[in-house]
Model the fold of this input.
Amino acid sequence: MNGLFGDNIFFLFLFACITIMNYSRLTENQKIILFYLLTFGLAILKVVSIMNSILYLTIVSFFYLEFLSEDIIKIKFVKKLRYKIVDFLFLMIVQYKFFLFFLTLVFTSARVQSFAGGLEFDMFNLNSVMDLCSILMFFITVFEISKEKFKIKTFTYLLTEIFIPPINDSELDIYEDYLNILVRMEDKTYYLRRNSYNIFSKDFLLVKLKQYASRHRNQGLKISIKEYVRASQHLRGYSSLEMQLLRTVALDEGYYKKITRKIFEILYTNIIFKSMKEYYEKNDYVNHERFKEYLLSIYVRNVRTKINGVVFTKMTKYLGESPEKWNKEKFYLACLGLSFQPKFTNFYVYELYDDFIKKLELDTKLINQELVGLSKSDRNYYGGDK
Done:
């Protein structure tokens, strides 16, 4: 330990980082860049080894991002250490380009430079070249961080700007009939998954297997396959409702980076929604036992839909802000639009969910009138873009 933190270098590094943390005019990105700069300085001047440099950076960055962050509500809600570790690793790798910075440090390594020094080139000094490469890599790292190709919104923003009204002020009974329609059309496993929030969970897989087995028993394998092939031509790649909500409300940048976004959805549906649920339960919030319904009420107020060619930035742009004034026919169309189908064919609108239309006694004439109206609408109809 004395070798690790000897000569007071770590404590000087820590003091410099604390000074940076306290400078309120800097953004989180800028503070991380300065942490990198301090670490890079220690490494390139050979004050400490690469391993110690990385250790210093990891300790300071972890405590800053997970315990000393300006995102106060994240600190308040996210209590479990495993969530903090996963959040830290994701942020450092994806948002703060740690692997690029690691390459920067590799070029400064005494071992790498010693190896390079053993190679004989008359025209130039390889150690100097390595230092120049490390400086270049550092600037590339800073540039990539500054571009913010993938950026997550803060917990504070989500809880104060998106999840409104808060769960304890929400009137959920008025949504009940509509939420059942949404679940039936988008994710039948939703209420059956009591403790999981994405499709990569044991809970989800067990529910799906039971549903498929039940369908095959009732219809037979041949009919089930035929129905699935017909339906799959009109349905999108599958995600849970929680994953759809998260990618809509929690990303500042990076929606179209599909692989990174999918990893984000899988990890953060647990980090964010489980942390929220546990906090509400622990503090006995009103409606805490109806957390899943609450998530859906936020879903319909934030997720986009495209109905017969018209895009609405939120479902409520089409339905209206007051659930008391909604009707099931319009809500059915809004749910159909979640898959962003280019055309609303008769099969997609009337046959794909034929049993559901009959069960709900939906007025097909009213549905048709809505579709005709949308087909003739201007670009700004209900705030949407055609």
